[in-house]
Amino acid sequence: MATLHIFFLIATTILFALLLLLRFRRVQGDGRRLPPGPPSLLLLFIAAWLGLTSSPAEAEPLLQRLVRRYGPIVSLRVGSRLAIFVADRRLAHTVLVQRGAALADRPSFASARILGADDNYSVTRAGYGPVWRLLRRNLVAGTLHPSRGRRFTHARFWARHVLVDKLRRLADDGEAPAPVTPTFQYAVFYLLLIMCFGERLDEKVVRAIAAAQHEQVRYMFSKMSVFAFLPSVAEHLFRGRVRKMLSLRRRQKELFLPLINARREYKDKKRGGEREPRRSKSETTLEHSYVDTLFDVRLPEEGNRPLTDDEMVNLCSEFLTAGADTTSTALHWIMAELVKNQAIQERLYKEIKAKTKDGHEEVSEEDIQSMPYLKAVVLEGLRKHPPVHFVLPHMAAEDVEVGGYLVPKGATVNFMVAEMGRDEREWEKPMEFIPERFSGGRGVDVTGGSTGIRMMPFGVGRRICAGLNIAVLHLLYFVANMVREFEWKEAAGHEIDLAEKLEFMVVMKKQLRPRLVPRKPNMQTEGHM
Fold first, then answer.
1. CA pair distance 486, 500, nearest whole angstrom
2. Which helix (H) or strand (E) holds 430?
3. Would you say 316 is a known binding-site residue?
4. pTM of the full predicted structure?
5. CATH assignment of 2-518?
6. Which of 297, 356, 407, 499 is the least buried, fewest Cβ under 10 Å from its Cβ?
7. What ranges do the domains of the chain cover?
8. 348 in helix, strand or coil?
9. What secondary structure, in 3-state letters, does 15-83 show?
10. Using one digit for the tens of pLDDT, what is the confidence trace for 247-276?
């Protein structure tokens, strides 16, 4: 029966695509040309494949071939929507900076409607409007702005301790080198969880929340993409997926609401006049958290109402999802390159040692500000190995001309991030890891402002990643501390292989299993995790 359903869905898809092709023209009625793309017959099968089985990232090899054939801007029709892909940095600058307002919207997702969710109460997925502006301003001003960084100094210290402690156990283990990916993922998620809810949680709770987040995100991206193409048909055939996704969301709510309510009680006590003593690194509660800011949000367009519990759960989930996997994946690639390039690692270690006092337990946030080579290493890692090869899709709010082609109102536009960062016309030896290209005053503005776009691992323009500054800080902080604590070496039988594999992020096909050599005797740190 399942096979029959799939056959029916594919047949319906092809029939629907044929109808679309009869209406579809490369030249609009006013004579303006759409970006080039594959011929009609091939387009039919591409549309069915993309809509039923894939995300743009999974179709990356196909898109790379299309770019080589048709040029740096190509179009495909995916379902009833025209999808345009941009691989050129100059065209990206035109679209995202010069014409930013016209391309600042997001397409709606059929899966959100089917699940009864409202993407409008989200920073990453909301349409371009007053609610999005309010939520983004709250996130940046209250939590992610560099001026707020010191509020989370203790959280980073705690997370560093967890990271180094777990890595030290791996180094002391006499068995074959273990993969470090789970350790990176745990430490970064642990840090963001503290920032979100303001509380150090024990490992059992952290792992339960991480597992719930992981399962929901993976299921959404691997199983729910089918609803992007003929959602009414998919909704009928894949009811089990909807039920599963709803159960995952209920589980998430069960885990998040007690933390939100506990934080609400804590804030109420503070408002009641209970004074808080000055906090130290051995405390377990932060004075500020992201969820604190959500309690104060009011929606002027809706009678000045506060956020509901469901909306706060979704925003907290977004906070964790947007920052955890991207940061841990970038960390993984950077450390792999340092294992592979021992001379670069040694130069970096010398800079860290010179800028950090021996008696200090950590490389502090203040220390890393005077480490230009560290910053160059991180930027080179983000250039060569962006954790995501496509940003979230934009949607044209009006007709826009780009590179002589029409991007019509309602079309989705995506940007091939990895292609730009590896473009041999812009970067000398782009597939080599050369941090020096960012040193000596030759830095690159990753925000893509007036200087133009050369790389855009965080996106560019009005929908640029809100957590750009905090993500870079976390990468600098973790890389510096790990290199200070350990010499990272290649282990026999586990040589570095930089081949890529798409999971939720673009990760190493062969996991990093380094040999970790402690650079100094084991130090007892404050607070046992």
1. 26
2. none
3. no
4. 0.89
5. 1.10.630.10
6. 499
7. 2-518
8. helix
9. HHHHHHHHHCCCECCCCCECCCCCCHHHHHHHHHHHHHHCCCCCCHHHHHHHHHHHCCEEEEEECCEEE
10. 999 999 999 999 999 999 998 887 766 555
